[in-house]
From TrEMBL:
The gene is LOC123417843. Residues 55-120 form the WRKY domain. It comes from Hordeum vulgare subsp. vulgare (Domesticated barley). Residues 34-46 have a biased composition (Basic residues). SUPFAM superfamilies: WRKY DNA-binding domain. GO terms for cellular component: nucleus. This is WRKY domain-containing protein. It is found in: Nucleus. It comes from the Eukaryota. One of its GO terms (molecular function) is DNA-binding transcription factor activity. InterPro entries: WRKY_dom (IPR003657), WRKY_dom_sf (IPR036576), WRKY_plant (IPR044810). The lineage of its organism: Eukaryota, Viridiplantae, Streptophyta, Embryophyta, Tracheophyta.
Amino acid sequence: MVNGRAAGAAAPEIGAGSSSGVGVGRDQETKGKGGARGRGSRKASRPRFAFQTKSENDVLDDGYRWRKYGQKAVKNSAFPRSYYRCTHHTCNVKKQVQRLAKDTSIVVTTYEGVHNHPCEKLMEALNPILRQLQFLSQL
DNA sequence: CGTCTTTGACCGGCGC
DNA sequence: GCGCCGGTCAAAGACG
């Protein structure tokens, strides 16, 4: 995607502009992936914070780098849900973004976990971000 | 060159 | 017992 990660940059269209017809003939090299992962080995509980942000942009630079690792369609919503993860080494924070079927301009961002690394940019980005935190729901 | 994105396929847990 | 869903990962390609 050529989307600029600038917090102030406003993308006119959502999701549009991509469709990079990947369809690459993926190899069938040992597909034994997934499960083998020590799943659920987390001792510390993961605080889940759901934030409703009004933005057309999916990935807003909130001070941290997010790497999209999956996209699945949900039944409740006719729109696909996007899964993001902090690209940090010591940061196991996960972000879940879903658009509202009624208002595509509203996205439900669910943060899972807490960052363990400093972020100066967050300070500056916090100002505008705080403004977007109109509705804060704590699960 | 490095980095990020996208898609498909797979697995685990849970429900009935 | 089986099926279904959600969730995750890997690789390749593309872009700055």
